[in-house]
Amino acid sequence: MPQIPTPLQIAGSLATFHPDLRLIGPDALAGRHPGEHEDNLGAGVVAQPASTAAVMALIDWCRQNGVSIVPQGGLSGLVGGGVSDAGQVILTSIRLNRIIAVHLEEETVEVEAGVTLEALQAALAPHGLTTGIDLGSRGSATIGGMVSTNAGGILAFRNGVMRHQILGLEAVLPSGALFSDMTRVVKVSAGPDLKQLFIGGEGAFGFVTKVVMKVEPLRPHRAVALLGVADAGRALQVAARLRRHGALVLEAAEMMWPRYLRDHAALKGFDLSWLEDDAAVLLVEISAQSADHATTLLEDELAAIWDEADIKGAIFAQSSEQARRFWDLREDSGFYFSAFPQAPSFDVSLPPTLVDGYVVEITSRLRSIGIGYDAYIYGHIADGNLHIALATPGPLPSDTKQLVEDAVYHGITACGGSFSAEHGVGLDKRQAYLAHADPGKQALARQLKSLLDPDGLFNPGKVPF
Ligand SMILES: Cc1cc2nc3c(=O)[nH]c(=O)nc-3n(C[C@H](O)[C@H](O)[C@H](O)COP(=O)(O)OP(=O)(O)OC[C@H]3O[C@@H](n4cnc5c(N)ncnc54)[C@H](O)[C@@H]3O)c2cc1C
Predict the structure, then answer these.
(1) Cα 133 to averaged position of ligand 1 atoms, centre (Å)
(2) Helix, strand, or coil (residue 379)
(3) Is 295 exposed, middle or buried (0-12, 13-18, 19+ CB in 10 A)?
């Protein structure tokens, strides 16, 4: 058995390795925040390249020395895809953070992988542009991480997910060779689109270094409201009406089911007295020509559909600060982890019109397991993406865990949905991948993995490719 090198040995070997490579060793890493998973920094050695050449040289060194690599970006991933262990090297994009070019008329941008979503949005804003994708984790999520998880977020119902935003991509393969396809155009009909392998590849097929991305006009004049709705069907009715209106653009349709709403509002001191009964809440945001116009249009449209959609109360944000408070209710979603540490959580998608039936079924299925479980449910309703967290601390005993997963995933793929909508597979959804991903697709992914990474160097132990 070859000896696994210690973090100190790896750090020592790489100390003066390449002028564009900075190394953070175990001592300097102690006490650093590990991001969304406590074991992200377990390797104890972080390589921070500032150029593609340094990435290539490092990967070549790792290959020659049999050291496996864990790619990382902003560490905001929610499925343990960035977890690392002693004997491995963390390869982070943090210093690959240049915005290379903004092509104003083309509405495209070329960026390095470590640029955060928020930094890109800030750089585009003075040009009257923004990204066509947006996430609550915008301050830490990097473009490279978002490519690797095929991130979705708030605008996916209109613009698609990360896959639909990426025109070109550069990555370094496990062999150390460069894959370069920095296409700047939408139309390419020249064989299969091989860069798709890295989009949603979760760091298993190589390290993404640069991309070309679509961007879109910034629409700063907004109106935001919270509406009481009986169910997802009514919420979709409202969203559909707003989407079809010629003078406004629907920017968000986010839903929170009663338990999520009630507990979060109580924690935040958010007044829900305007809300009838035990309704769910739909957050809608629209943009229009001016802020006043946006407010009038939203009020008029909701008044017009009020009875038909059985709206159970509404409040309109009167200032950007109030709009932020509305959004905090939806985006500060990790609140339940303080009451229920490691609460088991899920991220599923299904055709939006099937959401109500699914919510009724899982609620009853979860209640019938053992002591009975209740769930916090919220999500991006217009594209059918639900986040579900049990109101119970985790981890669950393995037999109960299996029953819960069976309850949550039952019928999801059969109805055309997914057991993992936007967070990826990582460590946490491995079993779900094996149980629910199409066996033919799994076999092809494994073949591709063994072709590109025969030594299993890239992000081993995560998605079972
Ligand atoms: C509050 C909050 C809200 C969120 N909201 C959303 C949401 O609305 N929609 C959504 O989709 N996600 C959401 N997420 C999840 C998370 O932000 C995304 O998964 C994001 O895409 C991860 O980006 P990252 O840079 O943090 O990647 P990391 O967490 O560092 O890594 C994620 C995965 O990508 C791989 N990876 C990272 N960089 C590279 C690279 N350069 N090359 C190859 N592989 C790489 C890693 O190995 C890992 O498998 C949210 C997270 C939080 C904490």
Answers:
(1) 13
(2) strand
(3) buried
Distance 421 CA to ligand 1 centre (A): 13
Best residue for ligand 1 mutational test, from 149, 157, 328, 458 (most atoms within 8 Å of Cβ) = 149
Question: How many other CB atoms sit within 10 Å of the CB of residue 20?
Answer: 17
| CA–CA separation, 130 and 159 (whole Å) | 13
Q: Summarize the confidence of residues 93-122 as an average pLDDT.
A: 98
Please give the structure tokens belonging to residue 397: 């005993």
**Backbone phi, then psi, for 349, in 5-degree steps?**
-135, 150
- Nearest CA to 91 out of 19, 33, 145 is that of 145
Express each pLDDT in 402-427 by its tens digit. Answer: 999 999 999 999 999 999 999 999 99
**Ligand 1 atom at minimum distance from 459 CA:** 47
pLDDT for 12 equals 78
For residue 194, what is the DSSP state? G
Residue 212: φ, ψ to 5°: -110, 130
Cis peptide before 26 (omega within 30 of 0): no
CA 20, 22, 26: angle at the middle one, nearest 5?
160
pTM greater than 0.85: yes
- On the question of pLDDT at 1 being above 60, the answer is no
**Which pLDDT does position 16 carry in this prediction?**
77
Q: What is the dihedral of CA 246, 248, 252, 253, to 10 degrees?
A: -60
* pLDDT, the chain, mean: 96
pLDDT of 287 above 70: yes
- Residue to mutate (ligand 1; options 32, 33, 55, 78; most atoms within 8 A of CB): 78
pLDDT per residue over 40-55, tens digit each?
999 999 999 999 999 9
Q: Report in angstroms the alpha-carbon separations of 283 from 132, 195, 246, 314, 382.
A: 19, 35, 20, 10, 11
- Written as six digits, the tokens of 316 are 């309109």
**Does residue 140 have its Cβ closer than 6 Å to ligand 1?**
yes
Tell me the domains of the chain and their CATH numbers.
Answer: 7-95 (3.30.43.10), 99-217 (3.30.465.10), 222-331 (3.30.70.2190), 335-451 (3.30.70.2740)
Percent above pLDDT 70 for the chain:
100
